[in-house]
Amino acid sequence: MAFNFAIFKTRALSAIVFAAIMIGGLVYNQWTFLALFTVINFGCWWEFHRLMEKIEPSYKGLPNVLRYSMVCFGFAYMLYMANPLVFPIGKWNLHDIGGYFLIAMASVFLVSLVIFYKKITVNNLLSLIAGFLYISLSWGLMIKLRGRVNPYEQIDAGWLLPVILIASIWVNDTMAYITGTIFGKRPLSSISPKKTWEGTIGGVILAVMVISYGGHALFALPFRLLILVSFLASVMGTMGDLLESKLKRLAGVKDSGSIMPGHGGFLDRFDSLLLATPYIWLFVDLFL
Q: Does residue 260 contact residue 269 with C-beta atoms inside 8 Å?
């Protein structure tokens, strides 16, 4: 695959604007972090519904109350995963508010199931559940990661792990694209023919190197931690990209949306992060 400078320029310029918004939301404070992933959560759900309508035509007949109550249930789960000490609201906190919101949305969803059961197919119901597991579960665990206190400093640096995770995926995507266009010969998968083994392996290796040395130099974090996190994020991020490519192929579309020139929509941009986040959370929760 020949290197296309025009495509790379478009992707790079839009990525710069995107990165500025992301970095601001990630590191300014916990509330901008929550606001950022709230927008991402709803954007991903919007595109997921559109893809499901193309994959399964009967999905269009799904009552809106079921769609929206599941989306709100996912958002409530995000709030519930917030650390009470990091997200206080006076005498309340997001964790408690999220718990009450979860109960309310679960009740609405279950009542709606009873009322509209004749309009619901098993496949459509499974698609809604899959949407929660695919989208809101991941963003809830991302909020959980943000609520962690950095074990290497006596301050709240909960943004550090999410930033390392996201940076690993960004570096991997960029390096995989560059090495793949220059050296790529063997397709990685029929799902995404443009991805090559050379690009994938090169992206993972370079991501591990950049994140490990950069994270150690900037934050004095252990090499072993950075190597494991960046490697896991890069590998699972690639798998997440392939998963979303499969969904788009089933739906017969090139992109899930058009919010970002050269990169597509919310799902196109965050597909890697959606799959990598649960694995990083599990690794951190078990071993860090």
A: yes
Q: Is the pTM of this model over 0.70?
A: yes
DSSP 3-state assignment of 119? helix
DSSP 196: E
Residue 259 binned pLDDT confidence (cut-offs 50, 70, 90): confident
User: Sign of dihedral through CA atoms 104, 110, 115, 116?
Assistant: positive
CB 37 within 8 A of CB 139: yes
C-alpha span between 276 and 274 (Å, rounded): 6
- How many helices (H) and strands (E) the chain has is answered by 10, 4
Distance (Å, rounded) from C-alpha 228 to C-alpha 165? 11
Paired tokens of 195: 């991805």
Give the 3-state secondary structure of residue 157: coil
- The pLDDT tens digits of the residues spanning 203-248 come to 999 999 999 999 999 988 899 999 999 999 999 999 999 999 999 9
Contact assessment for residue 228 and residue 252, using Cβ atoms and an 8 Å cutoff? no
Cβ–Cβ under 8 Å, residues 36 and 26: yes
Q: Which amino acid is at 267?
A: L
